From TrEMBL, chain A:
The keyword Membrane applies. It is a multi-pass membrane protein. The gene is yurM2. It comes from the Bacteria. One of its GO terms (biological process) is transmembrane transport. GO terms for cellular component: plasma membrane. This is Putative ABC transporter permease protein YurM. Gene3D superfamilies: MetI-like (1.10.3720.10). Its main location: membrane. Residues 73-265 form the ABC transmembrane type-1 domain. Pfam families: BPD_transp_1 (PF00528).
TrEMBL record, chain B:
CDD domains: TM_PBP2. The keyword Transmembrane applies. Its main location: membrane. SUPFAM superfamilies: MetI-like. Belongs to the binding-protein-dependent transport system permease family. GO terms for cellular component: plasma membrane. It is a multi-pass membrane protein. Pfam families: BPD_transp_1. Keywords: Cell membrane, Membrane, Transmembrane, Transmembrane helix, Transport. The lineage of its organism: Bacteria, Pseudomonadati, Pseudomonadota, Alphaproteobacteria, Hyphomicrobiales. It is found in: Cell membrane. It comes from the Bacteria. This is Putative ABC transporter permease protein y4oQ. It comes from Sinorhizobium fredii (strain USDA 257). The chain crosses the membrane at residues 35-61, 97-117, 129-149, 177-203, 224-246, 284-306.
Length: 280, 315
């Protein structure tokens, strides 16, 4: 039976005041925004805020009738899933090389891959826009897929690399004496053994891709290639003003699956977010 | 390439079963062996080069022109001399540093406090899920939550008035610091979980026995934190804060949705400056020059801090 172990603050009262306060800060805006999705529009932007909602399904009706939510969902899923596949195909061999082989320039190549994560999207935004314009890929899901893959490639490579570093070399040596080649080792030993790392990397890459905003805004110049993230911003402007109840509803539709994915990989999350620089 | 050698080897093994025991794996030539890691890492590097080197070079080239739709006219270093005299550019740089710096400090302090109070709590798994929720919202949705709470729905003003902290409706976009504050609140709310998750993982991973021993020696929890936990976590803190810091310097979505740089450019970040010059005013050459300058700054940061952070994080 686990006893209540002591942690920071031997004073339980202080501890729980702090934890509950922060939990409220995290959750109350989310719950409040959830109610926004079930209110009539007339109730949201008024001089005196109304805290207790009159329930309404206006936003649902708007989404179903006026808003191509199926298209935006399809765009999001296609671009995100495609980008994750590209990332895994490129990153797994790269991570294998960086984790297991001695070769000239290994450190520099590893750092180059890492450093692409440090590039501000705005820096490459203008040229990327022209690049896709020139090859005629503006306003397409394929362009988004390529961009998302590039944004997350460094992250995915580094996460997988860190998991590969943890796999005991003996496993590999044993296979090698049995006559397995390099690729067999990668395919039959490394990939199964670091599957948690691969899944973590894929989930984190997917979350960043779903949420990506700036490039999607620039490349998806008409609503044809809009993803959920950018389509939200489309509820604003025009004669109607910001349509908050629809925004709230859409953000919850996107939030739910992400929450489930993250709960599934919770254990690996901290390591994944630091690209494997932190073990645990 | 390498794969076909594999199949060849297998074929050879089948053809000569008698000798198979010793020659299943034909030793590959020395050069093939040397090239193999490059073949593995090559595609990823080429992909990244295509998507970073090309834009980098293109931005440098374009920054030497004045671009008017399809007409490019040579400007030499004109864009650069203009930009270093452009007060808006320096203001954007300053705003990024001020908003990002304040936000990052707040996030670090809150994340550390909350992590420290919760890592040995019996319900730590539950707390973790609750505390990380804001991070899982789409950034654009988060920006709308706070736009509604601060400006459009006046909820925060109303709450402040009801507890007597404000006497009348606050116009958050009317003052430099209030507008910045709204961006900071949104950023802290969404991204404190990032640091929290990492810190709590690090605290849980530390050796419990050292803590226990210190406690038996009569050390108070605060001295355990300052003298044991914090020093042990240092490398992890450096990595996490560095990564978060880099993300903050690229702050765009909140500015785009919540403030659009108002009032008077006080909330315009570097990313928004480049976006506005390029995609609102169509000064593509000028925007590219700003990008190149920002790229130089990023490279300097990446080379120094990040390399060090990742070295210390690994040891």
């Amino acid at each position: 039976m686990a006893s209540i172990r002591k942690s920071g603050g031997d004073n339980l009262l202080v501890r729980y005041i702090i934890l509950v306060s922060w939990a409220l800060v995290c959750v109350v805006p989310i719950l409040w925004f959830l109610t926004i999705g079930f209110r009539p529009r007339t109730e949201i932007i008024v001089p005196e805020p109304i805290y207790w909602p009159t329930w309404s399904l206006d936003a649902w009706r708007l989404l179903v009738s006026d808003w191509p939510i199926a298209l935006y969902l399809r765009n999001s899923i296609l671009a995100v899933a495609g980008s994750v596949v590209i990332d895994l195909v490129l990153a797994i061999p790269a991570a294998f090389a960086l984790a297991r082989y001695e070769f000239k320039g290994r450190e520099d190549i590893g750092f180059y891959i890492l450093s692409t994560r440090m590039m501000a999207p705005a820096i490459v935004a203008v040229p990327i826009f022209f690049l896709f314009k020139n090859i005629g890929l503006l306003d397409s899901v394929w362009a988004l897929m390529l961009i998302y893959a590039a944004i997350n490639l460094s992250l995915v490579t580094w996460i997988i690399r860190s998991y590969m570093l943890d796999i005991p070399k003996e496993l590999e040596d044993a296979a090698r004496t049995d006559g397995a080649g390099d690729l067999t080792i990668l395919w039959e030993i490394m990939i199964p053994a670091c599957l948690p790392g691969i899944i973590t990397a894929a989930v984190i890459a997917a979350i960043f891709a779903i949420n990506e905003f700036l490039f999607t805004l620039l490349i998806a110049s008409t609503s044809k290639a809009y993803t959920m993230s950018v389509a939200l911003a489309n509820f604003t402007g025009g004669s109607d003003g910001v349509i908050y109840n629809a925004i709230a509803l859409v953000s919850f539709i996107a939030f739910a699956p992400i929450l489930i994915l993250v709960i599934l990989i919770q254990k690996h999350l901290s390591r994944g977010l630091t690209m494997g620089a932190v073990k645990g | 390439m390498a794969h076909s050698t594999q199949t060849l080897e297998k074929g050879a093994a089948k053809a000569a079963p008698a000798a198979a025991v010793y020659s299943v794996r034909r030793p590959r030539s020395a050069t093939a062996k040397k090239m193999f890691p490059y073949l593995l890492v090559g595609p990823a590097v080429l992909y990244l080069l295509a998507i970073t080197l090309y834009p980098g070079l293109f931005a440098m080239y374009q920054s030497l022109f004045v671009v008017k739709f399809v007409n490019w006219s040579w400007a030499g270093l004109g864009n650069y001399t203009r930009i270093i005299q452009d007060r808006e550019f320096w203001a954007a740089l300053g705003n990024t540093a001020i908003i990002g710096g304040l936000s990052l400090s707040l996030q670090t302090i809150i994340a550390m406090t909350v992590a420290f109070f919760c890592y040995r709590d019996p319900f730590v798994r539950g707390w973790r899920i609750v505390f990380l929720m804001p991070m899982l919202f789409m950034p654009s949705a988060v920006a709308f939550i706070w736009k509604l709470a601060f400006n459009d729905g006046r909820v925060i003003s109303d709450l402040l008035m009801s507890v007597g902290l404000a006497s009348n409706n606050v116009d958050w976009l009317s003052s430099v610091w209030l507008a910045r504050l709204t961006l900071i609140v949104a950023d802290v709310w969404q991204w404190t979980p990032f640091l929290f998750i990492i810190f709590v993982g690090a605290l849980q991973g530390q050796d419990e026995e050292i803590e226990e021993a210190a406690r038996l020696d009569g050390a108070s929890w605060s001295s355990i934190f300052w003298n044991i936990s914090l020093p042990m976590m240092r490398p992890i803190i450096v990595v996490a804060v560095t990564l978060r810091g880099i993300d903050i310097t690229t702050m765009f979505t909140n500015v785009y949705i919540m403030t659009q740089g108002t009032p008077g450019g006080a909330t315009e970040t570097m990313s928004y400056f480049i976006y506005r010059q390029g995609f609102r005013m169509f000064n593509f050459g000028y925007a590219s020059a700003a990008s190149v300058l920002m790229l130089l700054i990023t490279i300097v940061i990446a080379q120094t801090i990040v390399k060090r952070a990742f070295k210390s994080g690994k040891s």
